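Hi everyone,

Forwarding the result from last night's run.
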Amino acid sequence: MFTGIVEELGEVTAVENLDDASRFRLRGPVVTEGAQHGDSIAVNGVCLTVVEHEGDEFTADVMAETLKRSSLGALTVGSRVNLERPMAVGARLGGHIVQGHVDGTGEVLERRPSENWEIVKISLPADLSRYVVEKGSITVDGISLTVVDAGPDYFTVSLIPTTLDLTTLGHKQPGDPVNLEVDVVAKYVERLLGDRAQGAGK
């Protein structure tokens, strides 16, 4: 379980393309401190398992299904990535509940800078739009953000200087893909209401 509060901006140092998967080596001095084989680390919002750990780098295998459903397949050597370790029991929940299970990908459509913040418009897959509401939470590349405006096929977020400086969203340009994870609470509510409606119809 994660919170969407990015701990550091890491870097891809190697990519090995296999038949039905890819193996990434990533540098992240903060998240690798004390890391062990089998630990989880979120990479651009995708929960990955540490396969090997040496110094300030770790490797993780990414299966074909994950490559298909996320933007990790577009990563190359030198790509910057958002990194976060799982939330410790008893720690503050600074963002919102993030599972590291990407629901789909969007695309940066527009950036509108202002003096103290920047508005970023991101495309939204049709099957996810019902989960995104104004002032609700959404995870973009592993970053817990508040939705400013929610349209039928897009949403906007407002980014403060800290987010721009310390995450990938400070560098993403129109056309770049991003990983999206909607609020898991919304999905549970939908399922429960659907089950209740089906029960009432019997």
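Helices lie at 64-69, 161-166, 184-200.

Cheers,
N.
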